Amino acid sequence: MWKKIGPLLVILSISLNAVFIGTWVVQAARGGRTGPEGHGQTCEGVSCPLHRSLGVTDEQWGRLEPRLARLRRDSDSLCRQIHRSRGELIDLMASAQPDRDAIVAKQEKILAGQRKMQELVIAHLLAEKETLTAEQQAKLFQMIRERSGCAGGAAMMCPGSIPGVEARTSAGPRE
């Protein structure tokens, strides 16, 4: 059974990590505020806690802030689409007679949305990288590694890198 589910778990893990990184970048840009009161608020200088922790200058912030606003707008819309598709997928699976083809099609739609989100975040990070100093870039990518659970890089994909998974696969299902 694990041989059938294993590849799906890997794809799910990669997709969730991509979405997590995108969400983290957007939330960090908002300063962790999720409500409408978080939009448009600025303090003196750099209003984003992430960029304050990177030590960006006011000049750098002037170039970064419009990019963050675009990322926020574009990612919010895409996130709503992905969320809606996930709800539809759950409804398909919960139906009395699940249609496997419809489920696969919905999975593909979700993966396409997640791929777009990942492309959006990558484009944003590459553009932002042009404004940051080498030290700021190193700190940013280290923070992303740490907060996405990828501090070990490719180790996330190795057997046993997810606590308890190796034990379940070798010892059978959990009781």
Structure explained in plain terms:
- This protein has 175 residues and is mostly helical.
- The protein has a domain of 116 residues: Four Helix Bundle (Hemerythrin (Met), subunit A) (Up-down Bundle), CATH 1.20.120.
- Helix content is 71%, strand content 0%.
- The chain contains six helices and no strands.
- α1 packs antiparallel against α3.
- The longest helix has 37 residues.
- It is elongated and about 60 Å long.
- The two termini are 16 Å apart.
- The C terminus is likely disordered.
Quick summary:
The protein has 175 residues and is mostly helical.
Itemize the secondary structure elements and their pairings.
Layout lengths: L1 H29 L18 H6 L3 H37 L5 H32 L2 H14 L17 H7 L4
Helix pairs in contact: 1-3, 1-4, 3-4
